[in-house]
Amino acid sequence: MVSDGPLDPPAAWERLRARCPVATVELPSGDRAKFVSRYDDVRALLSDPRFARPRAGEDTARLSADGSGGVAADASPEYALAIPEHGEQHLRWRRQVGRYFTAKRMAALRPGMARIAESLLDDMIEQATPGEPADLKAALGFPLPVYVICDLLGAPAEDRDRFSHWSDAFLNVSRFSKEETRAAFTEFAGYMSALVEAKRAAPGEDLLSTLIVESAALPEEERLSDAELLATGMGLLVAGHETTANMIGKMVALLLADRGRWEQLLADPSLVRTAVEEVLRFDANLGAFGMRRYLSQDVELDGELLPGGTTVFCGMSSANRDDRVFASPDEMDLTRSPNPHLTFGAGPHSCLGQALARTELQVVLEVLLRKLPTLELAVPADELRKVEGLLVGGLREVPVRW
């Protein structure tokens, strides 16, 4: 499903919501799956504790054509992570990890985030070539989330270029070969395993250290295993920087694509929180297909029986444009409230780090409005270039001037 422009939704979404809310789609691999486009159906599937991402060994539809997809794209046994996806074991893991990502804990990180953002912007301004645009994604969008998640996990930020490569391989659909994906995964797992062991030997104040120490004090059946700690570190490092880095770029591009939006925020900075939620809803480029779910049993949606064994893609971006739920869904309303968008999913598998992502997006917007009120896109919005070949969607660069 191809969109008209890099920030626009595919026209097919509206047609599917109206006429074919449970559609059959062909994936790059040639496999077939179902695509669900309406809000209520997407929310129901995402909220259902019976269904989660496909696991190794399940006969799921593959995204990549030759098995080259990364951990997030294809449920290959060789890339299996130990994070439990179902039942009490999933709840156990989520309880232990999730309490470090509360809104209250993330609010305590705001001053530090703001200092990093201001420093990165100062560097961008100082290094800018007169008359030439700067790339906001490279200068701010990518490094800020890396610094934040590395500080949180206790990983050295100077390894950020390696993290970027490993994350891309983790999220690969078609950018890397099978051999490149395998090599990157092996390197990433080795790096994180060594980091976990270093934290075990000399715990610090970071999240990995805390998980290791506190888990060891629990009854054996409650503890996080070594494999779970490894998978948690890898998953958080990828989710904590790749998706947020892409979202920072898209947020700025969406707000600058219509100057009236930026001017509205300059006139009333108190709208930053609702503006961030609206950007999250409005973003049409979360990824190629949406969140994947494997049906372990039969499910009926919109009068159609989907048999167990079906792979379903939950189109959150399409659901976020459903006029059954959102008034004037194709208009960006920076004051929209409530805003029950599904960008972070729903239910027991909703995004664990959503409070962190929200905080980073709010901080970036506040700092930009304060330091660069004259910020504007250096190219027309329809000339922005999309990230290709990865499970997550984004822009390759965000050229700006001020």
Descriptive account of the structure:
- The protein has 402 residues and is α+β, with helices and mostly antiparallel strands.
- The protein is 47% helix and 8% strand.
- The chain contains 15 helices and 9 strands.
- It has a 4-stranded mixed β-sheet, with helices on one face. The chain has a 3-stranded antiparallel β-sheet with strand order 3-9-8. It has a two-stranded antiparallel sheet with strand order 5-6.
- The chain is globular.
Keywords for this entry:
402 residues; alpha+beta; 4-stranded mixed sheet; 3-stranded antiparallel sheet; 15 helices; 9 strands
Helix content: 40-55%
**Radius of gyration, CA atoms, in whole angstroms:** 21 Å
Oligomer, anyone?
single chain
Distance between the termini: 35 Å
Q: What is the tally of helical segments?
A: 15
Report the uncertain regions: none
Average pLDDT number? 89
* Topology order in helix (H) and strand (E) letters: HEEHHHHEHHHHHHHHEEEEHHEE
Q: Going across the major beta sheet, what is the strand order?
A: 1-2-7-4
**Biggest β-sheet: count, sense, barrel?**
4 strands, mixed
Q: Could you tell me the strand content as a percent range?
A: 5-15%
